[in-house]
């Protein structure tokens, strides 16, 4: 008697409807994505090189820290002496300007000759030349940020000798990124400036497209703007996905509604409040949707999640 009661309880429990999440089958516009490969670049990047040879004696910026345009990041050994020379030259320059004005005024009054004015003008010209020469020499010992951005790694340590023309530090602006890639001739008619792309699963915008083909590769050059790229490495190769125009509308369901059983694709279709195991033939995938070529019709209701705890002909709600 107890065994019979137990079996009846199991049957009642098994027949209890199971709550499921469903999806109504509908048509979806499918686009055929094309996968290309591009190179990720910072919006702006500059390598600062030494304009003169010397010992790197000062580093004023931290690696990886934000920097402002014109900020001095590092300097060579003769920077302090040149600054003093520049200050002295500026004083001399100002004095020559004042003297010229005084000489010109006295010349107008008839107290000095034209030759005196010309001498004062020549002295001012020499002072200006000297000032600009020292200013140029000072600039060659300093490494200034050319724009707002981030300070890269220093290629030289404090106290090390830096040869003229050697790279010292990079500055890069990652307010947004630029991705350079090449496009086959067959795709050119499908692209237009402002078109949305996907790069590393982030939305990007086609910003430039060269309407000519390279003579060797027979590819056109293009670039896209990418506002965000978490974890990306500047200079790395990145996937570029281009969605072409929709060619057709297909019956589709969310990918999670489809599962494999003995290498066959199935869904659970809800018929008369029961789960019916239904084989389907699948096609393309796009935006987490999968095309159903056969086995379902528009308006059919399929179970979206929880298939693992459901069997054929189970009551559901």
Secondary-structure map:
Blueprint: H1 2-14, E1 21-24, E2 26-30, E3 33-49, E4 54-59, E5 66-67, E6 72-76, H2 79-109, H3 114-139, E7 142-144, E8 149-151, E9 161-162, E10 167-184, E11 196-199, E12 202-209, E13 219-226, E14 237-243, E15 248-254, E16 259-261, E17 264-271, E18 274-279, E19 281-286, E20 289-294, E21 301-305
Antiparallel strand pairs: 1-21, 2-15, 3-10, 3-14, 4-6, 4-9, 5-8, 6-7, 8-10, 10-13, 11-12, 11-14, 12-13, 15-20, 16-17, 17-18, 19-20
Briefly summarize what is shown.
With 317 residues, the protein is an alpha+beta fold. 22% of the residues lie in helices and 42% in strands.
What are the salient characteristics of this protein?
alpha+beta; Elongation Factor Tu (Ef-tu), domain 3; elongated; about 325 residues; 3 domains; six-stranded antiparallel barrel
Average of pLDDT: 86
- The domain tally reads 3
Shape: elongated
Instruction: Quickly give the structural class.
Output: alpha+beta
How many helices? The count is 3
The SSE order reads: HEEEEEEHHEEEEEEEEEEEEEEE
Describe this protein's structure:
- The protein folds into three domains: 15-31 and 247-309, conserved putative lor/sdh protein from methanococcus maripaludis s2 fold, CATH 2.40.420; 33-44 and 170-243, Beta Barrel (Elongation Factor Tu (Ef-tu), domain 3), CATH 2.40.30; 46-157.
- It has three helices and 21 strands.
- It is elongated and about 120 Å long.
- The chain is an alpha+beta fold.
- Residues 4-13 have low confidence and may be disordered.
């Amino acid at each position: 008697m107890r065994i019979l009661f137990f079996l009846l309880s199991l049957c009642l429990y098994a027949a209890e409807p199971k709550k499921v999440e469903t999806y109504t089958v509908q048509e979806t516009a499918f686009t055929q994505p094309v996968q290309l490969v591009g190179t990720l670049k910072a919006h702006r990047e500059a390598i600062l090189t030494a304009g003169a040879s010397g010992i790197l004696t000062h580093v004023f910026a931290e690696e990886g820290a934000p920097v402002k345009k014109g900020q001095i990041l590092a300097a060579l050994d003769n920077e302090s002496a040149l600054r003093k020379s520049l200050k002295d030259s500026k004083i001399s320059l100002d004095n020559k300007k004042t003297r010229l004005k005084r000489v010109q005024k006295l010349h107008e009054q008839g107290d000095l000759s034209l030759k005196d004015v010309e001498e004062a003008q020549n002295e001012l010209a020499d002072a200006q030349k000297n000032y600009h020469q020292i200013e140029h020499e000072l600039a060659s010992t300093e490494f200034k940020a050319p724009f707002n951005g981030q300070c890269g790694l220093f290629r030289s340590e404090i106290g090390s000798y830096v040869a003229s023309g050697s790279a010292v530090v990079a500055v890069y602006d990652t307010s947004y990124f630029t991705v350079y890639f090449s496009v086959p001739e067959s795709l050119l008619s499908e692209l237009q400036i402002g078109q949305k792309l996907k790069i590393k699963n982030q939305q990007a915008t086609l910003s430039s497209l060269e309407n000519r083909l390279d003579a060797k590769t027979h590819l056109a050059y293009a670039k896209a703007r990418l506002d965000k790229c978490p974890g990306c490495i500047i200079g790395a190769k990145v996937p570029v996905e281009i969605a072409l125009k929709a060619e057709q509308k297909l019956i589709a369901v969310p990918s999670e509604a489809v599962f494999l059983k003995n290498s066959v694709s199935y869904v659970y279709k809800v018929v008369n409040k029961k789960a019916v195991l239904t084989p389907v033939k699948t096609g393309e995938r796009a935006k987490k949707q999968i095309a159903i070529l056969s086995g379902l019709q528009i308006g059919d209701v399929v179970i979206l999640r929880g298939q693992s705890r459901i069997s054929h002909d189970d009551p559901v709600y």
